[in-house]
Amino acid sequence: xxxxxxIKYAFVLLLPALYLAHRYYSAERTRALPPVAPDPEKPVxxxxxxxxxxxxxxxxxxxxxxQLREFDGSDPSKPIYVSIKGTVFDxxxxxxxxxPGKSYSIFxxxxxxxxxxxxxxxxxxxxxxxxxxxxxxxxxxxxxxSFFSKRYNIVGRVTDHPQPLSSNL
Length: 169
Ligand code: HEM
What we know:
Layout (H helix, E strand, L loop, with lengths): L2 H30 L28 E3 L1 H4 L12 E4 L2 E4 L4 H4 L11 E2 L1 H6 L16 H15 L3 E6 L11
Parallel strand pairs: 1-5, 2-4
Antiparallel strand pairs: 2-3, 3-5
The structure holds protoporphyrin IX containing FE.
Protoporphyrin IX containing FE (HEM) binds next to helix 4.
């Protein structure tokens, strides 16, 4: 065998051995590390806004779906409302998100429960009737309800929501 052949042969044998050794030692290293427990002092970083502790007591003002349309942000002198499962939230302080032409304006001045549950921004999905949602999407919808409840003042409820109010949160 030539010297070159010998070197090639050594390489072929050496590479898998190096790979296996690397795997073995990195596995050992990981095992040796203490488990990382989340630090309750350090809040988890998220791009979503944090829950608020200065919310006003919930109001129970009645709104029809028709009346809700007034509060879609197109009149800057009026608040912006988003309804989820018939609960009306005042989202005015997030006009940068719900105002006209902004990312989630599709949900302003209406109850777009179905679209929220489906994670859809299509106008045809932003409707109050969420009866067609599967279990997973209903959970997503409930999570949004709880997200909004912790961040926005409740100003009322929709009186002509297609789902009976008893099935609301
Ligand atoms: C590529 C897809 C998406 C990206 C990158 C994205 C990104 C984001 C970001 C960065 C925020 C925080 C916004 C802020 O507070 O300024 C947010 C919030 C939100 N997103 Fe999305 N999003 C996406 C898709 C969707 C879809 C499909 C929906 C439909 C349900 C949705 C609904 C929302 C809602 C309701 C909020 C809460 C806004 C609030 O009130 O704070 N997003 N998203």
